[in-house]
Amino acid sequence: MAEPIIEVDGLVKVFRGNVRALDGLSLQVEQGIVYGLLGPNGAGKTTLIRVLTTLLAADAGSASVAGIDLNADPQAVRSRIGLAGQFAAVDDYLTGRENVELVGRLYGFSRRDARQRAATVLERIGMLDVADRQVKTYSGGMRRRIDLAASLVGSPQVLFLDEPTTGIDPASRRSLWELIRHLLDDGTTIVLTTQYLDEADQLADRIAVIDHGRLVSEGTTADLKNRVGGTVLDLSVSQADRPNALAVLEEAVVGGVTVDPGRDTIVLPASDGVTTLYDVLGRLDRARITPTDVALHRPTLDDVFLALTGSVPGNEAAAGAAVGAGTDRETGADR
């Protein structure tokens, strides 16, 4: 691994009610990669982003970004990072260009430099031709692009993207994916949180899976999939047969049986592939349980996520109100 640009050691953050959003979290992020943060709602992802961007102080532990200790010099950290949060932080009544120039001025650039930097960034993200329209006339994808442009105007060494494609259409998502890939050409390090596992699979060079404020696994997508096993078996049975089927399978399978509520399937490792399939079907047949659907496949990030956290993104209950409503999205604690 190259010299890390982000180092996190034993971070702890406790909110009211003794809710431990971060519980001794440690990780390192290599320079010049996309580093994905995955985890259920309430896992600690957004709290970690808020700590690393100096928006929130940790209660214990240490962290550095671009070689600068967060506690020692937070202002210097801010000058080296960019942040695009879960909600596009743009002013509807300003034009796209004015929004980006405003952030440039907040970085401390002169009016002239802010204007030049804004024009460069707007051209780079393909928004120069609509830059002089009010943001309130933009689509969701265009608003996201302007928000991203504002986060880039300071030429950050590290760019934090907190669920950047939530709520936009598939075409806009893929367009943003391409933009994120191009940012790597300049050596920008990107820390990405997402609820879309295909997004993490497409973009992330390394992935950290976080649950209950702790790092539960880390590696490339191939590493994580290999840890689940060679193949995975999905089974669908009737709701009436589900309890008996789970009892039969839990006796038969080493490595754990889980239920994916999104697909309404039973998921289990099939280390021996077709041999495991025959064995499982035989056991179910002897228990007079007939599956309604069976699939044997290579592990996906969904399977990894389910095996590590017991759930899949998008299927958990909301854990508190959104940040924009004045509460911490992950803990429900007042900010």
Summarize the entry for a quick read.
Its main location: membrane. By secondary structure, the protein is α/β, with parallel strands linked by helices. The protein folds into two domains: 4-224, Rossmann fold (3-Layer(aba) Sandwich); 230-298, ACT domain (Alpha-Beta Plaits).
SS elements, strand count: 14
Please tell me the total number of domains.
2
Radius of gyration using CA atoms only: 22 Å
- CATH architectural group of the largest domain: 3-Layer(aba) Sandwich
Annotated CATH topology of the largest domain: Rossmann fold
**Count of separate DSSP helical elements:** 11
State the major sheet.
6 strands, mixed
> Biggest sheet: strands side by side, in what order?
6-7-8-3-9-10
CATH structural class of the largest domain: Alpha Beta
Strand proportion, as a percent range, falls in 15-25%
- Topology order in helix (H) and strand (E) letters: EEEHEEHEHHHEHEHEEHEHEEHEH
Principal-axes shape call? elongated
Taking all residues together, what is the mean pLDDT?
85
CATH superfamily of the largest domain: P-loop containing nucleotide triphosphate hydrolases
SS-based class: alpha/beta
Protein name: ATP-binding cassette domain-containing protein
Family: Belongs to the ABC transporter superfamily. Drug exporter-1 (DrugE1) (TC 3.A.1.105) family.
Domain ABC transporter: 6-237
Membrane topology: Peripheral membrane protein
Describe the overall structure.
The protein contains eleven helices and 14 strands. By secondary structure, the chain is an alpha/beta fold. The protein has two domains: about 220 residues, Rossmann fold (3-Layer(aba) Sandwich); about 70 residues, 2-Layer Sandwich (Alpha-Beta Plaits), CATH 3.30.70.260. The strands form three sheets. A six-stranded mixed β-sheet has the order 6-7-8-3-9-10, sandwiched between helices. The radius of gyration is 22 Å and the shape is elongated. The chain starts with a strand and ends in a 26-residue tail after the last helix. Its main location: membrane. It is found in: Cell membrane. It is a peripheral membrane protein.
